[in-house]
Design goal:
The protein is an alpha+beta fold. Helices cover 21% and strands 40% of the residues. The protein has two domains: 133 residues, Beta Barrel (Lipocalin); 111 residues, Beta Barrel (Lipocalin), CATH 2.40.128.270. Strands 1, 2, 3, 4, 5, 6, 7, 8 and 9 form a nine-stranded antiparallel sheet that branches. Strands 10, 11, 12, 13, 14, 15, 16, 17 and 18 form a nine-stranded antiparallel sheet that branches.
């Protein structure tokens, strides 16, 4: 073997090592949303997630219950410890079956790969068990469902059953959505974790049902304009006032 060939081999080995290290960095840099489980898309209205930290823990939601466990990485090899459920909820049978399949897939995973913004978990035969996409942790280009808001009466209340409040943050600093009866448009500006929202004029229609829906709409829109800070943690978004009071809590909207 001549020196030129040896030099090329060394460069290849270094490149492969760098790629492996980069993959591990990407593993912990992102929060991952399941898009395929054993060749099947996740059930509608479920979100299965995985977040890997630098201390060797992975946690997320398995579709019904939150979970956490340890993990170890060696090159493209990955293994998990015993999964611990932090919640013990019971969901409809199809959701529970999907959750069991997901946790089984983690248990059978031996290798992983990250290509662009996609994470694949594979078994010992190289078959893909689960596929994920990276979730943006920025605000621009994301959509959310409101689960609770400050009603202006020193109380944070849940959204009325049978109604929906949405928030879509455009990349053009426009916030749009439905406030539970009417569509709305607002402008927003962010700097670090600070946010300013100005709600535009609405062409209002009146909704009679369910009871309290118009008061809810008015309360939510008024609360938006008091937002001073925001924080995204995986699948959740929280806004607060300058005094630290809760403005609204959101769950990330996941397309079926």
């Amino acid at each position: 073997m001549n020196y030129r060939t040896l030099f090329v081999l060394v460069l290849i080995i270094l490149a492969l090592t760098a790629c492996a290290a980069g993959s591990e960095d990407e593993l912990t840099a992102n929060i991952w949303l399941l898009t395929d489980l054993g060749g099947t898309a996740p059930l509608p209205d479920t979100s299965v997630t995985a977040e890997f930290d630098e201390e060797g823990r992975v946690s997320g939601n398995a579709g019904c219950n939150n979970y956490s466990t340890s993990y170890t990485v060696d090159g493209d090899q990955i293994s998990y410890g015993e999964v611990v459920a932090s919640t013990m909820m019971m969901c409809p049978d199809p959701v529970m079956a999907q959750e069991a399949l997901y946790l089984e897939a983690l248990d059978n995973t031996t290798t992983y790969e990250i290509v662009d913004d996609e994470l694949n978990l594979m078994d010992a035969n190289g078959d893909t068990l689960a596929r994920f996409e990276a979730i943006s942790q920025g605000l621009e280009g994301t959509s959310w469902d409101v689960i609770a808001y400050n009603n202006g009466k020193e109380a944070v209340v849940s959204v009325i059953i049978g109604t929906e409040i949405t928030a879509n943050f455009g990349e053009d600093n426009t916030l749009t959505g439905n406030a539970s009866c009417n569509d709305y448009t607002a402008s927003y500006e962010t700097e670090d974790d600070n946010i300013t929202i100005v709600v535009g004029a609405l062409i209002r229609k009146y909704c009679e049902t369910p009871e309290g829906v118009m008061e809810q709409e008015q309360g939510y829109l008024a609360a938006l304009e008091t937002a001073a800070t925001y924080k995204i943690e995986g699948m959740t978004l929280q806004m607060r006032t300058a005094d630290g009071a809760t403005v609204a809590n959101f769950n990330r909207a996941v397309s079926p």
